[in-house]
Amino acid sequence: MPTARSPEPTPLTVLVDDVRGFRDERPALIARSSQEALELLEGLGNRRIDHLWLDHDLVGNDTIRPVIDRMVQMANTGSPLNVGQIHVHSSNVTAGLRMGIDLGEAGYIVTRSY
Length: 114
Hints:
single chain
């Protein structure tokens, strides 16, 4: 008699972007501001984030910078955010490059998508 397989866990994707979503409508937790992103990431605790998508310019004068600073601080204290792949998808090329450099130097795996 065949045994039933447990369903594979769905990869956890987090998107931080003030306006965009995924065209393919993949499931994701979405934050529209840096404050929402910080609260979302804090709420996840040490849960594994498979894909973290980050935009630089958010609502008004808000940027992703507080999130980047928090992630770097976490890494520098030996408790990095539990994330597999970070995707920087900002149309602000200069800021996107800085994000990638800062996160990469902190030990995160970063892909640029802009």
